[in-house]
Write a structure and sequence with these properties.
The complex is a heterodimer of chains A (about 110) and B (about 425).
Chain A (H helix, E strand, L loop, with lengths): L3 H19 L4 E7 L3 E8 L6 H11 L5 H7 L11 H8 L2 E7 L2 E9 L2
Antiparallel strand pairs in A: 1-2, 2-4, 3-4
Helix pairs in contact in A: 1-4
Chain B lengths: L13 H24 L4 H13 L9 H4 L2 H21 L6 H13 L10 H14 L3 H11 L3 H9 L5 H30 L6 H19 L16 H21 L3 H4 L14 H4 L1 H22 L6 H13 L6 H18 L6 H9 L4 H7 L1 H15 L3 H4 L6 H19 L6
Helix pairs in contact in B: 1-4, 1-11, 2-4, 4-5, 5-7, 5-15, 6-7, 6-9, 7-9, 8-9, 9-10, 10-21, 11-14, 14-15, 15-17, 16-17, 16-18, 16-19, 18-19, 19-21
Classes of the chains: A alpha+beta (about 110), B mainly alpha (about 425).
């Protein structure tokens, strides 16, 4: 997979922008690269996001992986502070768990390697 | 942070979306064959027309309705449409807004610039790139479809008598394959110049490639000059066909989402910046409804200003229809178009000329600027766009069909950082 590390960095970049700009001032990221997949775990502490927005975020991040859009547009991810790029994160990952746990927003994103 | 109400509509499988789209090449084929049928020697007329289209240099502006006749031009577009839909089916693609935009753009530009001969080397180049990078063809098919905007360079080298025939033909094909090979990484990189505010990004990329290639040729004293071959008759049959096809899209939208008329206004707040895929954000019902509406509005504009619906104009309309699935709607397109019209009026251009009509239609490549910064900035962007698009064609000699994408990229790359400089605080 070409530019794999850079793509993961940009996914993290985009989500960092989202949380720090729209929600909180404390976020944890854990990135684990395995031979066949990369897992990104995020805890956004003391989230102010409403349940409806979290549901929407879950939907956006769980759209189908779309390789052709990733290959073309991945360099836009994390590039600006507009939220269209969240859709790009959605097309670049295969699975997303997005839920509220003890007042924090927990995310687990999985990106399979080909 | 906006919370949106979910959209209720019928589920569509990707095969069903393909079936909706295949109506376009079928209609074009029927119309093309129908318009030849009543002429003497229809087979000869068709074959000669297709040959003329395929062997023309095809640099901007070469209208296939004039070069090959109405029938052959529509058959050419239909064949290219079937070929691209076959690829989308073959690679089992989910038909998202961007693929719809790519399909409609290719279909439209098959009336001026793209033919069955000059697009193929670019697909072959894309295939070689995939083999080299060990990725699948379906990962790049989208970029390759758009990058056929560089197809005229293949025809120009092959048929413009720059080189003797067999060598010119071979060189043209080799250059086409090379373009297909390099276009994917280049186009991805170029996005950062305008941050996705220019929807025809491949046009911007192709403008850069075209400038390089033309400059190299010019350094060998080989000159590529734009031409002006236009179909200048108003064909009522074409107008009726387009109206039927756009009403068909609106009907499909209504069938998929019965509340589409009420919910259509939900598309208007979208900025339209890449990537705004309406099929994902609002569903296929609103998307097809928007495509049909934008098609009718575009056609209405052309007719109101007294323009002729010829090849370049059909391309302009179909590109708007396609990108109505990926960022464009009336609210973000109107200010840009208004800017171009106002500028053209005050400079003294003829608003009914094909050149100005296509500038107005294609200027919507920077619709996201109006969607993001509002009406005033949108109008200014439109004014700037006209100034650039009427001057930059000579840089690449007309070998980039998406000349407006090139101009739009420059306008967006120039204007967006300036607008951001006026933003205050942490926003």
């Amino acid at each position: 997979m070409r530019h794999e590390t850079k793509k993961i960095s940009r996914i993290v970049d985009e989500l960092t922008t989202l949380f720090l700009k729209e929600d909180t001032n404390e976020v944890d990221f854990k990135i684990k690269k395995e031979p066949d997949q990369t897992i990104i775990e995020i805890i956004d502490y003391r989230t102010h996001f409403e349940e409806a927005y979290i549901e929407q975020l879950r939907g956006t991040l769980n759209i189908q992986r779309q390789w052709e859009i990733e290959e073309y547009y991945w360099q836009l991810t994390g590039e600006t502070d507009y939220d269209e790029e969240l859709c790009l994160v959605g097309v670049m990952i295969d699975e997303a768990i997005v839920e509220k746990r003890d007042g924090n927003l927990y995310m687990r994103l999985v990106r399979y390697h080909k | 942070m906006t919370v949106l109400e979910p959209i209720q509509e019928r589920d569509l499988k990707k095969e069903q979306v393909l079936m909706i789209l295949v109506v376009f090449p079928i209609a074009f084929l029927a119309f093309g064959l129908g318009s030849i049928l009543f002429q003497s020697n229809p087979e000869t007329t068709l074959m000669r027309g297709l040959w003329n289209i395929s062997s023309a240099p095809t640099v901007l502006v070469t209208d296939f309705l004039e070069v090959g006749g109405v029938g052959a031009a529509f058959v050419n577009s239909a064949l290219i449409g079937f070929f691209n839909l076959f690829l989308l089916k073959r690679y089992k693609m989910r038909i998202n807004g961007l693929l719809i935009a790519a399909f409609m753009t290719v279909l439209g530009f098959s009336f001026f610039g793209k033919n069955v001969f000059n697009i193929l080397p670019i697909y072959v180049g894309g295939y070689f790139y995939c083999r080299y990078q060990r990725i699948q063809m379906k990962d790049v098919i989208l970029v390759i479809m758009f990058s056929t905007s560089m197809a005229p360079i293949i025809s120009e080298i092959s048929f413009a008598h720059i080189f003797t025939r067999p060598y010119g033909l071979m060189l043209g094909i080799v250059v086409g394959i090379l373009i297909g090979f390099i276009i994917v990484p280049l186009s991805s990189h170029m996005l950062r110049f305008h941050d996705g505010f220019n929807l025809y990004n491949i046009g911007f990329t192709a403008g850069i490639i075209g400038t390089v290639v033309t400059s190299v040729l010019r350094s060998f004293k080989i000159e590529i000059n734009p031409v002006d071959i236009l179909y200048l008759q108003q064909n009522k049959g074409i107008i009726i066909l387009l109206i039927i096809l756009f009403l068909y899209l609106i009907s499909i939208g209504l069938l998929i989402n019965t509340k589409v008329v009420k919910e259509y206004k939900r598309i208007l707040p979208y900025r339209g910046r890449s990537i705004t895929d309406f099929t994902q954000q609002l569903g296929y019902g609103i998307t097809f409804f928007n495509m049909g509406t934008m098609g009718l509005l575009s056609l209405l504009y052309v007719l109101v200003v007294g323009g002729i619906v010829n090849g370049p104009v059909i391309a302009g309309i179909f590109t708007i229809v396609g990108f109505a699935a990926f960022g464009k709607h009336p609210k973000n397109c109107l200010p840009i178009m208004l800017g171009v019209i106002v500028a053209a009026f005050f400079v003294g251009y003829d608003l009914s000329s094909t050149g100005i009509i296509i500038s107005v239609l294609f200027s919507t490549t920077i619709a996201p600027i109006a969607g993001t910064y509002g009406m005033g900035v949108g109008i200014i962007a439109g004014i700037l766009h006209l100034a650039l698009v009427t001057n930059i064609g000579t840089i690449h000699g007309g070998i980039n069909l998406y000349n407006n994408g090139f101009a739009g990229g420059l306008v967006a790359g120039f204007l967006v950082p300036i607008m951001d400089a006026f933003k205050k605080g942490e926003v």
